[in-house]
Amino acid sequence: MSNIPPSAETGSIPRLDPAPLADPTPEGPESSRGLSGLRRRLPAALHNPVLRVLIASTFVHTLGRGVFLTVTVLYFSLIVGLNAAEVAVVLTAASAVGVATSFLGGFLADRLSARLLSIIAAAGSGLALMAYTLADSFVTTLIIACLVDGMMSAEHAIRGAIIARAFTGTERVSARAILRTVTNIGIAVGSGAGGIALLVSTPEAYRWTMLGAGAITAASALLLAKLPTTVDAHRPSAGETAERLSGLSPWRNPRYLAFTGLSGIFAIQFAVFEIGVPLWIIQDTDAPPAVVALLTFINTALVIAFQIPLSRGTHDMRYAGRVSFVAGILMAGACVLYFTASLTAAVATVVVLLVALVLHSFAEILSSASSWGLSFELADQRLAGSYQGVYSMGYSLGTMVAPLIVTGLAITHGLWGWLGLAALFVASASGITAIASRAASRPR
Q1: CATH, residue 396
Q2: Which of 358, 353, 335 lies closest to 422 in space, CA to CA?
Q3: TM spans, by residue (predicted)?
């Protein structure tokens, strides 16, 4: 399906392909291949040594992440004793550090062993999480939070480099989709375990939960040790000097930088769901707060069911661009419906929110698939780590400023704020579509 010649697609990067990741043969409508598609593809994926390790380590890592996400803000407030302003500063500063380490992780993955770096980052993340039990002030919490976000962001970029080297074309997107599905499952299970601390609600329960989250996260490093050395940095051939490779840097690729920036803007949609929608429901609608939990459950279920089947084909740049545009339209529709929920009452409000959530979830699924495909295909694979680091950096920047944008627009200005967000998503998606279309029409 790809219009990229095999030689341009694979370059000189070593890859492992003992087994395909997905069956290319269509098996009926996409809508019928949700969870059944996951059950069919996972056994095949487990035959691939790299993906088998990544699946196991991702599940273990996100179990710990799910536990941590459930208790983190309450831990800062109730146990450490931070006020709301201090919590906001801690989270913002940690995100800023994550922006820097996203690129640093990818940059180092081009020069050092990606396998060893991923082990260090995973173990470091776990130890940093465990260190939260020592936090007793604003300063110590800030330092630990920066370490946690820094390690996790670096690991994400390193993992992108590993996927870029170990697979090609459609296999890369398929691997990303499978890992995204596993991530959602792991976080869902971990969140349930973290809820135990909320029920017990004692300082000891919170601290033991943090220790458990850190230990689980650190354990994922043991699994990453099983990665083959072929995922390590590409060594320049005789004709590829360090100076020549430096000329291929993503910082000298305006098209990739533009794509990264637009993807970071679209990533604001995560804050719309995690921050904007809960605040909007509580402050401006008649829906009960419990609806937030229902929306979260449905979103997780939809991503698990449809991320893999709807990611197929997005290694083709032209198709990925069209998928991105559809995601923009769906996200704009969701924004309009979120506002409409403030005009209705009782059951109608819940129904409107559910429809908006479905549109939002499919926008999330499609935009993720499109961005994964383009982040690989627009990159020069000889510097896969640096390109994935820049891509992760753009995402981190988007999520860092997202809370301010979402609350400053939708929550503060109502209708015009939600319409502004809708226009922002359509504009960023349209820009990605234009970049993909132009890149697909040019020989590589």
Answers
A1: 1.20.1250.20
A2: 335
A3: 50-76, 88-109, 116-135, 141-158, 178-199, 205-225, 256-281, 287-307, 319-339, 345-369, 390-411, 417-436
Is 155 in contact with 118 (CB distance < 8 Å)?
yes
The model's pLDDT over 18-63, given as tens digits with 9 standing for 90+, comes to 334 433 333 333 334 444 555 555 555 567 788 888 989 989 988 8
253-286 pLDDT per residue, tens: 999 999 999 999 999 999 898 888 888 988 888 8
Query: Distance (Å, rounded) from C-alpha 169 to C-alpha 54?
Result: 18
CA atoms within 13 A on the CB side of 92: 10
Q: Which residues lie below 8 Å from residue 264, measured CB to CB, with a gap of 6+?
A: 394, 395, 396, 397, 398
**Who contacts 263 (Cβ-Cβ below 8 Å, separation ≥6)?**
371, 374, 375, 391, 394, 395, 398, 428, 432
Dig out the tokens for 352 from the structure.
């409107």
Task: Report yes or no on 32 lying in a domain.
Answer: no
Chosen domain end from 201, 236, 271 = 236
Q: Which two tokens stand for residue 330?
A: 């769906």
Q: In 75-169, which ranges are continuous DSSP H helix?
A: 84-109, 114-131, 138-166
How many CB atoms within 10 Å of residue 415?
13
Structure token pair of residue 180: 């995204």
Q: How many CB atoms lie within 10 A of CB 376?
A: 28
Residues 210 and 309 in one domain: no
Type and span of the H or E element at 346:
helix 346-377
pTM: predicted TM-score of the whole model, two decimal places: 0.75
pLDDT < 50 regions, the chain: 1-35, 238, 243
